[in-house]
Write a structure and sequence with these properties.
Elements (H helix, E strand, L loop, with lengths): L4 H7 L6 E4 L1 H14 L3 E6 L6 H9 L3 E3 L3 H9 L7 E2 L7 H9 L4 E4 L2 H10 L4 E5 L7 E3 L12 H10 L3 E6 L4 E3 L3 H19 L6 E3 L15 H14 L9 E4 L3 H4 L3 E13 L2 E6 L18 E2 L6 E7 L10 E7 L6 E4 L20 E4 L4
Parallel strand pairs: 1-18, 2-3, 2-11, 3-4, 5-6, 6-8, 8-10, 10-11, 13-15
Antiparallel strand pairs: 1-12, 7-9, 12-13, 12-17, 14-17, 15-16
């Protein structure tokens, strides 16, 4: 989402900090993923941004959804979404949430442990299970190989165990890592899945569901593969190599950042300046704790001003008293003064949903570029 006159004019209507969302971009990104991954069902990962208007926009686009919590389920129930368009591919779920999934007839869910199988069998009997496996996360800004997933060599015992508990193991899921900049990760993961698919078939376990996970990247300050190239690799692999799949095969993908990240800009104001040794410091009203939590792990954004002044290098601190609250370092910007706005591009994902009121500072409000 580029900074333009319309966004600047709209930004002047509101007190910072706030997230400015373009719902047309949300729809555009959703449909672009569908276009480049034809035949793959797109499940929006609600954790990226669960604002009601974003959800409503995607419901109108006939999107499917992947959820992780009762709150997300409640949001979809308000939109009267069919249970067939909802999955829960978080491998760990609370008993209370499993009960709600069962009551709402949401049957497709992930697992990666024997204990989770026992829990699902007790609270959501008869569910259709998708086993999460560990795959290569090289080239991702956030590797996700430690918290969830089983090594492929451990898959068959878990599949058989689920079957023995009168559950239905219907397929596999994986995650190539969040903000994945390596287009080959999906292809490599599919080779692993194909091998397991064939092994399961020999054990009379027949799959019909394959989840490609999330990880589709958006542009920040480092090169990313084109969505078209990622899609070509996936489609080629599915059509040419996945010969052991039982028909019809349902293939899903769960993007979050790729739909909403590039659909919004965070607008924050300079509330302080200082010179500390050789460093130029700016302080803004959106920091690590109330909007930029992802920067703790070194995630960076494209930051803009509308000034026409000398260029300087800044360290940018948030508003709280905590020494961790330094979201940006070595940022080259036009010199700004207290009260000036700073525009943080492509900030629609994992900002307001991560935010807290730590130290009494408000979570940025969400506004929309169009009132339609």
């Amino acid at each position: 989402m580029k900074l333009n006159k319309q966004i600047i004019n709209k930004s002047n209507q509101f007190k910072t900090p706030f997230l400015l969302v373009d719902l047309k971009q949300v729809s555009k990104h959703y449909n672009n993923i569908k276009k480049n991954l034809s035949g793959v069902e797109v499940f929006y990962s609600m954790k990226a941004n669960d604002h009601p208007r974003i959800v409503e926009t995607l419901v109108k686009e006939n999107a499917s959804f992947d959820i992780t919590s009762e709150r997300e389920l409640n949001s979809l129930n308000k939109n009267s979404l069919s249970s067939k368009k909802i999955t829960c591919l978080n491998p760990i779920k609370s008993p209370e949430f499993l009960k709600r999934l069962f009551e709402n007839k949401i049957t497709i869910m992930a697992y990666d442990s024997f204990d989770e199988v026992d829990k699902i069998a007790r609270y959501a009997p008869g569910s259709k299970l998708v086993l999460r496996i560990v795959v290569d996360n090289e080239g991702s800004d956030w590797p996700l190989t430690k918290k969830y997933g089983v090594n492929p060599a451990e898959a068959l015992p878990l599949l058989k165990y689920a079957l023995g508990k009168k559950l239905q193991p219907i397929g596999l899921t994986f995650h190539v890592g969040s903000q994945c900049r390596n287009k080959n990760n999906w292809v490599n993961a599919l080779f692993v899945c194909e091998t397991l698919w064939a092994l399961a078939k020999k054990e009379n376990i027949h799959f019909n569901f394959l989840s490609l996970g999330g990880g589709l990247p958006i542009q920040h300050d480092r090169p990313i593969p084109a969505l078209e190239d990622i899609g070509k690799g996936i489609k080629k692999m599915l059509s040419n190599n996945f010969k052991s799949a039982d028909s019809p095969l349902r293939v899903a993908i769960e993007p979050g950042r790729a739909i909403v990240g590039d659909s919004a800009i965070m607008v924050t104001s300079v509330i302080g300046k200082a010179k500390r040794g050789s460093e130029n410091w700016l302080y803004v009203d959106t920091g690590v704790f109330n909007g930029f939590m992802e920067t703790i792990d070194g995630f960076t954004y494209d930051i803009k001003t509308i000034k026409n002044t000398a260029i300087k290098k800044f360290t940018i601190g948030g508003p709280s008293c905590d020494s961790v609250d330094i979201p940006f370092k070595n940022v080259v910007l036009e010199d700004v003064k207290i009260g000036d706005k700073i525009y943080v591009l492509n900030a629609g994902a994992y900002t307001t949903v991560y935010a807290s009121t730590f130290n009494g500072f408000e979570i940025p409000k969400t506004y929309f570029l169009s009132d339609d």
